[in-house]
């Protein structure tokens, strides 16, 4: 980008130049660049083959070669003899898309070949037509005759894209960007070679000064580009980006306004609904269960549940403990009883005086009886009698009886505790069950459900109303707005400063050419940058759209030649110097007028290097007489051109 312009734009936008350059490039904005001398496009050959069908039978074989700069014509003595078809096929090959080629002719075609030069480079567009679909290639032919294939296509879309890429690059043309679509839904579109080639073709009703499409100010953009107005492309790019940003901001603003309006409407609606909901809630009796009461009952159940559980667990432990202590007391009681019975038996048997052995019935001698009394040795077995054990048994009985008494007391206390806990647990469980029943009854009450529903509705509406009172979100403005605005302002300043007297020079050239081409009583022209042409004719102000069709055609040709001449004169122009004019005689009132126009066109082409004009007309005699047979491809009588 031009560093001075970029630095100024970046400074105004508060950005670093590198950052600004990247952002501008993303928006499709580039600084003005030095232009090369305009390239010259010259058609050298038009050829096509096919087979006519239907009522028109016969082969098609047209080949017109050795064309060069100058004025050329395809002509016939009657209409509908194929002259417009030749021009349409030429346009199809150069544009990659047909302009007005008739469907039946397109179906008849089997192959097309168009050769042309761009400066001193020779190119060939050659394709077969299969079921109306073009399949072929674009190639460059070297001086040696060798072919370098540049692109290949297999469809209408591929053909158009291939020719657009080639022509835009080779002729050094910039695409024209514009906003198109319905209000608030416009999108950036890019017009390429298919639109720009309208500056080479002159047919139809001649309502536009340049091209045949008024949409998106295309004629003005074509004028600025073909004359090579300094900074015009940058102004166009920045203007399109600015309109896109303005639309984005406008849409965001409208969306925010609509959101605010919707929020206000919603607040009013919600507030009305809230008042109704509050009245419904107020209509319930105070004694009616409320959400707070339900919450209290649920809390009571939650409070009683662990108490009842704890008492039940404590009761279970107390029962277990009491049962165990009772088992131990019973065991102690059994031990005391056994001990008592043992002592009694021992004393009983010790008090007996044996007479004989209980086994063999041998009588016990008196001596043994005396020894038992004296030595405490058993009169039967002679073993010592344990007097100490007899004495200790009495003491052990006392201890066992004391232990038994303690066990019974502990078991009694444990049983009493279990009984007390049983009562508490039963009471707690009953209280818990009562709370649960109260909660269930409250929760399943029809009145409570209605009131709960009313409470929830009030809470919901209050929340919704609070949400609608949130502050509105500010409209987000793209950070590129300041940058693009600065770029557009600086580019427009440079554009106005750089265009100098180009328009004045164009006006003078168009006036002179228009007068030479026979626009009667033309005294003054004023071409504006929007491609409108104001005239003074016969002393009265008028405009391009108000003169006759024949005068409009002359002024269109004069304007195109003026763009070519002034552009090359200033080293700025981009027009390639090819003009295709269809049926000029239709706009003339007499053959003499046509002859005069052709004579001047010949003179103008000789004066203008590289200018090639190809005309299609049904006035063969006048055209051939004026141009010469070597410059014409004509059909006589009822013959067809192909």
From TrEMBL:
<keyword id="KW-0175">Coiled coil</keyword>
<dbReference type="InterPro" id="IPR027417">
    <property type="entry name" value="P-loop_NTPase"/>
</dbReference>
<feature type="coiled-coil region">
    <location>
        <begin position="308"/>
        <end position="342"/>
    </location>
</feature>
<protein>
    <recommendedName>
        <fullName>Large ATP-binding protein</fullName>
    </recommendedName>
</protein>
């Amino acid at each position: 980008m031009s560093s001075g312009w970029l630095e100024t734009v970046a400074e105004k936008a508060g950005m670093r130049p590198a950052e600004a350059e990247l952002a501008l490039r993303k928006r499709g904005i580039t600084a003005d660049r030095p232009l090369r001398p305009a390239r010259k496009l010259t058609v050298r050959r038009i050829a096509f083959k096919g087979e006519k069908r239907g009522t028109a039978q016969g082969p098609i074989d047209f080949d017109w070669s050795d064309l060069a700069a100058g004025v050329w014509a395809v002509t016939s003595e009657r209409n509908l003899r194929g002259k417009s078809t030749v021009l349409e096929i030429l346009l199809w090959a150069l544009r990659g898309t047909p302009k007005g080629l008739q469907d039946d002719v397109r179906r008849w075609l089997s192959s097309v070949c168009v050769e042309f030069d761009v400066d001193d480079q020779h190119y060939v567009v050659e394709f077969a037509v299969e079921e109306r679909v073009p399949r072929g290639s674009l190639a460059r032919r070297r001086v040696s005759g060798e072919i370098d294939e540049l692109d290949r296509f297999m469809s209408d879309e591929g053909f158009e894209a291939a020719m657009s890429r080639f022509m835009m690059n080779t002729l050094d043309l910039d695409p024209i960007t514009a906003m198109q679509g319905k209000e608030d839904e416009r999108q950036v579109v890019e017009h390429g070679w298919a639109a720009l080639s309208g500056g080479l073709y002159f047919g139809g009703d001649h309502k536009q000064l340049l091209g045949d499409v008024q949409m998106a100010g295309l004629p003005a953009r074509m004028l600025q580009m073909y004359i090579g107005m300094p900074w015009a492309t940058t102004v166009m790019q920045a203007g399109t980006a600015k309109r896109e940003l303005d639309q984005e901001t406008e849409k965001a603003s409208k969306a925010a306004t609509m959101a605010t309006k919707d929020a206000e409407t919603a607040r009013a609606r919600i507030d009305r609904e809230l008042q109704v909901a509050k009245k419904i809630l107020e209509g319930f009796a105070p004694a009616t269960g409320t959400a707070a009461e339900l919450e209290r009952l649920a809390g009571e159940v939650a409070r009683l549940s662990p108490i009842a559980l704890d008492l039940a667990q404590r009761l279970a432990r107390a029962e277990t403990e009491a049962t165990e202590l009772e088992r131990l007391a019973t065991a102690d009681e059994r031990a005391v009883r056994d001990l008592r019975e043992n002592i009694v038996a021992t004393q009983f048997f010790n008090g007996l005086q044996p007479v004989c052995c209980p086994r063999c019935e041998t009588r016990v001698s008196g001596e043994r009886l005396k020894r038992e009394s004296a030595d405490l040795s058993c009169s039967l077995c002679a073993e010592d009698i344990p007097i100490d054990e007899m004495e200790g048994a009495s003491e052990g009985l006392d201890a066992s009886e004391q232990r038994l008494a303690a066990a019974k007391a502990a078991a009694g206390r444990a049983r009493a505790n279990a009984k007390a806990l049983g009562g508490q647990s039963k009471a707690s469980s009953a209280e818990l069950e009562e709370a649960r029943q109260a909660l269930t009854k409250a929760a399943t009450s029809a009145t409570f459900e209605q009131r709960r529903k009313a409470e929830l509705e009030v809470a919901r509406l209050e929340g919704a109303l609070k949400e609608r009172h949130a502050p509105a979100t500010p409209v987000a403005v793209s950070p590129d707005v300041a940058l693009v605005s600065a770029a557009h302002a600086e580019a427009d300043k440079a554009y106005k400063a750089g265009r100098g007297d180009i328009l004045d020079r164009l006006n003078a050239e168009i006036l002179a050419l228009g007068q030479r081409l026979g626009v009667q009583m033309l005294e003054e022209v004023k071409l504006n940058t929007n491609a409108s042409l104001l005239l003074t004719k016969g002393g009265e102000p008028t405009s391009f759209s108000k003169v006759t069709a024949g005068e409009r055609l002359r002024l269109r040709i004069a304007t195109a030649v003026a763009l070519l001449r002034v552009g090359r004169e200033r080293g700025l122009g981009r027009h390639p110097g090819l003009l295709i004019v269809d049926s000029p005689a239709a706009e003339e009132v007499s053959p003499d007028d046509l002859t005069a126009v052709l004579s001047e066109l010949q003179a103008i082409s000789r004066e203008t290097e590289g200018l090639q004009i190809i005309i299609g007309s049904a006035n063969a005699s006048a055209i051939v007489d004026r141009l010469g047979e070597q410059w014409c491809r004509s059909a006589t009588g009822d013959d067809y051109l192909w």
